[in-house]
Amino acid sequence: MTELASGVVQSVDWIAVAPPAITAVVALAVLVADLFVPAARKPVLGWVSVGGLVLALLSLLPLTSGDRSTFCVVGRAGQCSYVADHFTVTVQLLVLGGALLTALLSLHNADDLPPGEFWFLLLSSAAGAALLPASRDLATLVVALEVTSLPSFALVGLRRGDRMSGEAALKFFLSSVTATAVTLLGVSFVYAATGSLHLNAVAVGLAHGTGQLTVLARTGVILTLVGFAFKLAVAPFHFWVPDTYAGAPLPVAAYLSVVGKAAGFSGLILVSVIAFRPYADVWGPAVAVLAALTMSVGNVAALRQRTGHPRSAVRLLAWSSIGQAGYLLVPLAAAGYAADPAHEVGTTVAYALMYAVVNLGAFAVVALVAGARRIEDFRGLYATRPAAALALAFFLLCLAGLPPGVIGLFAKVAVFSTAVDAGLGWLAVVMAVNVVIALYYYLRWTALLFARPATRTADSGAAEAAEAAEGVPAASDVSGASGAVAVPQAPGRVPVSLTAAIALAALVGVALSGAPQLVLRFASGSLF
């Protein structure tokens, strides 16, 4: 413990900071090892990364017993830059677990990606995502958000020689830079109005602001929230998502849809519910409108995806993730109307846990079916890979909120109830309509899994030609002859890591469906 002249005690609780610290150290170790490991032994780097993520997850166990904090200001209770409470541990479990599933998907990825750079960037982004929910001052929060984002758009463009990958990375980069600029401008306004960066102190400053400082503070709050809206792909700031997911390597798209979104939502929760709590009358209605717009745009666009269009499977999951982001915003909007927002924030966290597990599972099955880029390519999957078809059907039904995906149904009901309890009846109606809309495209994909395989047509040939123009390998054919049946690739040896990812996601999804109340009860008590 070293005391500085400024009165700040720089004490480091290494147990509290272990999850992001371990992930960052392993990232550096993998990058250095890549310089010395021969090409034939490069796969070892992937298993080292998986081991590092498992170790980071195990380091969460000592943090479940109580709150820990570090980097605190002397003599000012509650002003700490890093807090490892139940909220932090829950979100860190989500992001590190999501990164682990992404790593399992990536161990046998068909894309030709440089292993050293890939694993370093993935672990670096995961370290930032793990740091973000523990951040309790605006400076640390913005830095953690950028540590999460910067490696992400490098991952998107890591597939060298792929035009779509490069365009996706550029679009992602430009939107990220815009979001960062807007966020920093908003944070600077808030700091000028309150004189502090710690979230609790910002809340006190906003509550006692007067005159011109109030105008400055309100402007800063709005700009900060707009910056987060860019990061979270909230409509109308969602334009970069479909092309980015479609152009990125499949594991990277899965990572962005879950880990990046969860990290961004945790930051939005911290700034709105803690720092900007005195201005709940400003951000509460705004978030409600954004929630309605986001879920409507995402679901309507997903509804319009053609099953035979190139990359329609990933694009549908991309639009679906936008719609799911709208649902995640509903409890947060309700928190602006609640005296104690613990239950509302807990509902958001619980829904995020459900979404993370089943969405990563869906991406894992898409990765398993080699060459399947169109939804139509999954027609008759049950005939060739029954276990994979059943798993994907379960994941899609969870996203739709239908049995046997009980956790999806329970989470949607919990989100719906928060809107009703907050007096946001109109938002509950919008959500109900969107849930019905989403049923169509989720059930359409599910039905294709068990449909009879269709014969090749002129439309399928045109779709394959369009895929070839984009550099996408066509779906494999059973016989390879003219008029062959267009079904997913015949069963072969499935990589152990990919099987483990699907099995783990399915197992967690079934466990959550068996005891949904426990999840929501724990998450509701996870707020600070």
TrEMBL record:
Please give, as recorded in its UniProt entry, the membrane topology of this protein.
Answer: Multi-pass membrane protein
Q: What is the native source organism of this protein?
A: Streptantibioticus parmotrematis
Name the top EC class.
translocase
**In UniProt terms, what function does this protein have?**
NDH-1 shuttles electrons from NADH, via FMN and iron-sulfur (Fe-S) centers, to quinones in the respiratory chain. The immediate electron acceptor for the enzyme in this species is believed to be a menaquinone. Couples the redox reaction to proton translocation (for every two electrons transferred, four hydrogen ions are translocated across the cytoplasmic membrane), and thus conserves the redox energy in a proton gradient.
Q: What is its main location?
A: membrane
Q: How does it assemble?
A: NDH-1 is composed of 14 different subunits. Subunits NuoA, H, J, K, L, M, N constitute the membrane sector of the complex.
Membrane-traversing stretches: 14-37, 44-63, 83-106, 118-135, 141-158, 170-193, 213-240, 252-276, 282-304, 316-337, 349-370, 390-411, 423-443, 498-519
| Family designation | Belongs to the complex I subunit 2 family.
The answer, when asked if Lipid biosynthesis is one of the entry's keywords, is no
Q: What is this protein called?
A: NADH-quinone oxidoreductase subunit N
Tell me which UniProt keywords the record has, alphabetically.
Cell membrane, Membrane, NAD, Quinone, Translocase, Transmembrane, Transmembrane helix, Transport
Chain segments annotated as coiled-coil in the UniProt record = none
Check the record and name the Pfam families matching this protein: Proton_antipo_M (PF00361)
Catalytic activities = a quinone + NADH + 5 H(+)(in) = a quinol + NAD(+) + 4 H(+)(out)
* EC number(s) recorded for this UniProt protein: 7.1.1.-
- Ranges for domain NADH:quinone oxidoreductase/Mrp antiporter transmembrane come to 135-437
Localization (cell): Cell membrane; Endomembrane system; Membrane
